[in-house]
Specification:
Blueprint lengths: L10 E5 L4 E8 L4 E8 L4 E7 L3 H17 L3 E2 L8 E9 L9 H5 L13 E5 L3 E3 L3 E2 L1 H4 L6 E4 L3 E3 L2 E4 L7 E4 L3 E3 L1 E4 L3 E4 L3 E3 L2 E5 L4 E4 L3 E2 L2 E5 L2 E4 L3 E2 L2 E3 L31 H10 L31 H11 L3 H10 L5 H12 L5 H11 L9
Parallel strand pairs: 4-6, 7-10, 8-11, 9-12, 10-13, 11-14, 12-15, 13-16, 14-17, 15-18, 16-19, 17-20, 18-21, 19-22, 20-23, 21-24
Antiparallel strand pairs: 1-2, 1-5, 2-3, 3-4, 6-7
Helix pairs in contact: 5-6, 6-8, 7-8
């Protein structure tokens, strides 16, 4: 059902050519922007983003509207009920609201630079599900996120990918990835569970990395000069260009591009356009009659972290206060919570730097930050 929310009336636009829609709702009282987008009549993607002022929220809303109108979207009344699917909430890198997946997220290559910053992450608290192909670049069009955390599984009917650009730079999937195929490019992604595809797991270019703590199941595991590591075994033929082996004898000739555009014969490098077509159409990447050997050995370079524990009672209480927008309740919770551990310290630090914290609340938080007060209360 469509949720009734305060603030300005939603702006709804459709594109007849693609059968897609976008709806934006600005909440002035919460300084938040809510975006719903996807195929008309199918469960849509929902994203929330907070801003320091109504002006910033309104400016981002206007940028989105201008960009989508330029792509042929036209404002109109919705003819079909908007069905909500996966929802991305906000999680901040400064730990103002603790979450057990922040620790493994910061272990992703380069993500440690975000730790302690007031940067926003998109948190899919109940997993990510989509009815067709899903490239993570789609989130770049809708929000201002430094990274993505999926708390749970990714279930995509088509191709799950990040093959367009480098956004979002860091992605953590807390569960399994299940899709028709899975493609990854020049960003950094970590999957704590298994990757199970019907066809191809593919990585390209050497500026990114794909680390899978679980196992891989599929038809082929193809690395085109990409850092791809699997901890629990790869239950698929592995085609790795870094191994120096010539895979053109077993992979489909339609996957390769010519070394020289003037030459008719193909070279030894996979064509990015061709591999995307094979993934999208579910085509077998191997030549007819070939039986490539399976390589089920681990392909990881480091021990993964154990799966995170469930959210603590402190984190749950804190999340309730944040979702209610009650900064006084947040301050009182931090002041009175008896167990002053690392999780509590992260929340304290995050609130000290949060724009919504009042000067009076900041003084009170600094008082409990003193060494004498950081021991557990009786």
């Amino acid at each position: 059902m469509t949720e009734s929310l305060p603030g300005e009336a939603p702006v709804y636009l459709e594109a007849a050519a693609s059968g897609e829609f976008i709806e934006l709702h600005e909440h002035d009282n919460r300084l938040r922007l809510r975006v719903r987008a996807g195929a008309i009549g199918r469960p849509c993607l929902v994203l929330h983003a907070g801003f320091e002022s109504p002006d910033k929220a309104h400016a981002h809303r206007q940028r989105l509207l201008d960009a989508w109108r330029a792509r042929g979207f036209v404002e109109c009344p919705p003819l079909a009920q908007v069905l909500e699917g996966s929802v991305a909430e906000e999680l901040h890198c400064d730990g103002r609201v603790p979450h057990p997946l922040l620790a493994p997220f910061f272990q992703i290559d380069g993500a440690d630079e975000l730790q302690g910053q007031p940067r926003r992450l998109a948190l899919f608290r109940d997993g990510l599900r989509w009815h067709g192909d899903f490239d993570l670049e789609r989130i770049a069009e809708l929000g201002l996120y430094a990274g993505v955390i999926v708390a749970g599984d990714v279930d995509v009917d088509g191709v799950f990918s990040q093959l367009t650009h480098t956004y979002p730079r860091h992605v953590l999937v807390g569960g399994d990835v299940r899709a028709a195929s899975f493609g990854h490019g020049d960003s950094h992604m970590r999957v704590l569970g298994d990757v199970r595809v019907r066809n191809i797991v593919y990585g390209e270019y050497n500026d990114g990395s794909l680390r899978i703590d679980g196992a891989v199941h599929g038809r082929a595991f193809i690395s085109a000069d990409h850092a791809m590591h699997v901890k629990a075994g790869c239950h698929a033929p592995v085609c790795d260009w870094n191994s120096g082996q010539n895979w053109s004898d077993c992979l489909h000739p339609g996957l390769f591009e010519a070394d020289d555009p003037q030459e008719a014969e193909t070279g030894a490098m996979i064509s990015p356009d061709a591999i995307r077509t094979f993934m999208r159409e579910g085509r077998d990447p191997f030549r007819d009659g070939t039986q490539p050997a399976m390589d089920e050995s681990p392909r990881a370079t480091a021990e993964p972290s154990p799966l995170p524990p469930p959210s603590s009672s402190f984190a749950e209480r804190l999340r309730e206060c944040v979702e209610a927008g009650d900064t006084e309740a947040i301050t009182q919770l931090i002041e009175t919570w008896p167990q002053r551990d690392e999780e509590w310290q992260q929340a304290l630090t995050g609130r000290l730097f949060a724009p919504s914290t009042t000067p009076q609340q900041r003084v009170r938080l600094k008082a409990v930050q003193s060494p004498a007060s950081t021991r557990a209360l009786p």
